[in-house]
Design brief:
Blueprint lengths: L2 H19 L7 H9 L7 E7 L6 E7 H27 L1
Antiparallel strand pairs: 1-2
């Protein structure tokens, strides 16, 4: 394996392990920029502040583009199923 690929894989493992084990992440924007420069578009990491349900406190959440697209697709499918269910019961 090429050293830059190995470095990227190790960094991604570090990033995901760190985010899963502690609420506060030590991953900096610079580290993410270095990672994003060496990976495909779907593997790029995007961080944003999200407010959790039932709280006004925002939390920094980092995901890959592929993870974000998969979450959007699951949400869209759920909404489509709910629309189909409620629509059919209303028409009877």
């Amino acid at each position: 394996m090429r050293p830059d690929i190995v470095r990227s894989v190790l960094f991604l493992m570090f990033l995901l392990t760190g985010c899963a084990s502690t609420p506060k992440t030590d991953v900096t924007d610079e580290m993410i920029a270095v990672h994003n420069a060496s990976v495909a578009e779907k593997d790029r990491i995007v961080c944003k502040m999200e407010r959790q349900t039932s709280t006004y406190i925002s939390k920094r959440v980092c995901r890959t583009v592929a993870q974000m697209e998969a979450e959007e697709e699951r949400a869209r499918e759920l909404l489509d199923r709910r629309k189909g269910t409620s629509g059919s019961s209303m028409q009877q």
